[in-house]
Amino acid sequence: MTDTSMTDTSTTDTSTTDMPDPADLADARAARSTRSGGRSRGRGRRAVTIAAAGLLVVLAVAGVAWVLLFSSLVAVDRVTVLGTSTLPADEIRAAAGVNLGTPLARIDVDTVAQRLNSLPRVGSVEVRRSLPRELVLIVIERVAVAATRVGGRWSTLDSRGEEIASLRERGTLVEVAADRAEIRAIAIAVWATLPAKVSAETVVVSASTRDDVTLTLRDGRRVVWGDVSRAERKGVVLRTLLTRPGSVYDVSAPDLPTIRP
């Protein structure tokens, strides 16, 4: 009997020792609450920081946009014209239609280019914004290389056979007699490949199709050139033929040239 009582007492003591202390439980809960609160406060601070940074970015972008679109700091105060030799710069500026004081970013460069390309003597144009306050117009003029009769007047032609401007007199320009720009361009291309001496003596280049280009020289002699092919060979043969008497020199087939009296 005594042994059994001692065993029960031992068991009871062990059970009491294993029970958690209420004070320890309270401390653990307090620690967990503190950590959780710290994490929440940390997340809150990060959210505020991110929001503030985002607001600053938005304000910066808005500020830059305002400066570019509305501020006089980047408004056009001069329009520079480059590349012209015969066209007056003031004529180019007027055709561009750009008002001084307009912010650079608000200028439609494509529209300005279209306005300038509509000028008869302008071949191409590039419009550039140059910060802070300059607009640059780079113009390539159409160069008159020949002239053609249009009704009762003369008109200058560029290398594409297209009309540039009217003239009272042809002057020293070679005459191109052809109805369409495409054929005129071929006639001009033939003239450009002639030997220098022959080119200088040519006063008229005529053609009705791309295959029947004919030259009229200053002394009245004519050269049947044909198409644009084998230009170098034709030029070599023609130089020799022109040393012989004749009125019509046919080099359209340069391996079988002919001379007609």
TrEMBL record:
<keyword id="KW-0132">Cell division</keyword>
<feature type="transmembrane region" description="Helical">
    <location>
        <begin position="47"/>
        <end position="69"/>
    </location>
</feature>
<protein>
    <submittedName>
        <fullName>Unannotated protein</fullName>
    </submittedName>
</protein>
<keyword id="KW-1133">Transmembrane helix</keyword>
<keyword id="KW-0472">Membrane</keyword>
<dbReference type="InterPro" id="IPR005548">
    <property type="entry name" value="Cell_div_FtsQ/DivIB_C"/>
</dbReference>
<dbReference type="InterPro" id="IPR050487">
    <property type="entry name" value="FtsQ_DivIB"/>
</dbReference>
<dbReference type="GO" id="GO:0051301">
    <property type="term" value="P:cell division"/>
</dbReference>
<dbReference type="InterPro" id="IPR013685">
    <property type="entry name" value="POTRA_FtsQ_type"/>
</dbReference>
<feature type="domain" description="POTRA">
    <location>
        <begin position="74"/>
        <end position="142"/>
    </location>
</feature>
<feature type="compositionally biased region" description="Low complexity">
    <location>
        <begin position="1"/>
        <end position="19"/>
    </location>
</feature>
<keyword id="KW-0812">Transmembrane</keyword>
<dbReference type="InterPro" id="IPR034746">
    <property type="entry name" value="POTRA"/>
</dbReference>
<feature type="region of interest" description="Disordered">
    <location>
        <begin position="1"/>
        <end position="43"/>
    </location>
</feature>
<keyword id="KW-1003">Cell membrane</keyword>
<dbReference type="Pfam" id="PF03799">
    <property type="entry name" value="FtsQ_DivIB_C"/>
</dbReference>
<dbReference type="GO" id="GO:0005886">
    <property type="term" value="C:plasma membrane"/>
</dbReference>
<keyword id="KW-0131">Cell cycle</keyword>
<dbReference type="Pfam" id="PF08478">
    <property type="entry name" value="POTRA_1"/>
</dbReference>
